[in-house]
Amino acid sequence: MTTENKLAHDGALAIARSPLVQHFRKDLLALFVVFLVALPLCMIVVTDLLTGVLVGVALLLAKLLLHFSHFNALVVHGEDDYCLLHLSGSATFLRLPILASSLDRVSPGREVHVDFERLDHIDHACMVLLTSFAQRHEQTGGKLIIDWAAFHARVHGIKDSALSVSTNAA
């Protein structure tokens, strides 16, 4: 093995073992953000400003589409007449059929608790679907329970400690 090959091999090992590389292996989103910044900058240097800006806008739109396309609605049937609806991701009109099919799996007459803990975003169409489901479900003897204080805190970015202070003051 020549000296150049040995240096290249040792350099590659040092890079692979660096804390920054280990961090990016654990957090792919951080790597994607670095890619979102680095690629347009490289495109500006290599080509021209307009091309770099257009590449940056295209990557940003791809990131937004990826973020808003992830949604999961899981119905967990508990004991007796208890049911839990876990919502995670972004509940947009694009994912309305997923929410509707999850709500259809709820048995009539059950008490349904909605968990918004992992929900990033919910739009008006999904809220209308939840409220119309609540009205239909109550006609069958069921009940939809939503913790509105926690929901509003989640939507407006209020921390739990601020929520407990405001509810204790009222």
Tell me what the structure shows.
The protein has a four-stranded mixed β-sheet with strand order 1-2-3-4. It has helices at 3-16, 19-26, 28-46, 49-68, 96-104, 124-139, 148-156, 160-169, and strands at residues 71-77, 82-91, 111-122, 143-146. It has 170 residues and is of the alpha/beta class.
Key attributes of the depicted protein:
170 residues; alpha/beta; four-stranded mixed sheet; elongated; disordered C terminus
Write a brief caption for the model.
The chain is built from 8 helices and 4 strands; from the N terminus they run ααααββαβαβαα.
Amount of helix: 55-70%
Strand order of the largest sheet: 1-2-3-4
Strand runs, count: 4
> Could you give the order of the helices and strands?
HHHHEEHEHEHH
Strand content: 15-25%
The gross shape turns out to be elongated
Going by helix content, strand content and strand pairing, the class is alpha/beta
Rounded average pLDDT: 80
Reported for the largest beta sheet, the result is: 4 strands, mixed
SS element count, helices: 8
List strands and helices in order, with pairings.
Elements: H1 3-16, H2 19-26, H3 28-46, H4 49-68, E1 71-77, E2 82-91, H5 96-104, E3 111-122, H6 124-139, E4 143-146, H7 148-156, H8 160-169
Parallel strand pairs: 2-3, 3-4
Antiparallel strand pairs: 1-2
Helix pairs in contact: 2-3, 3-4, 5-6
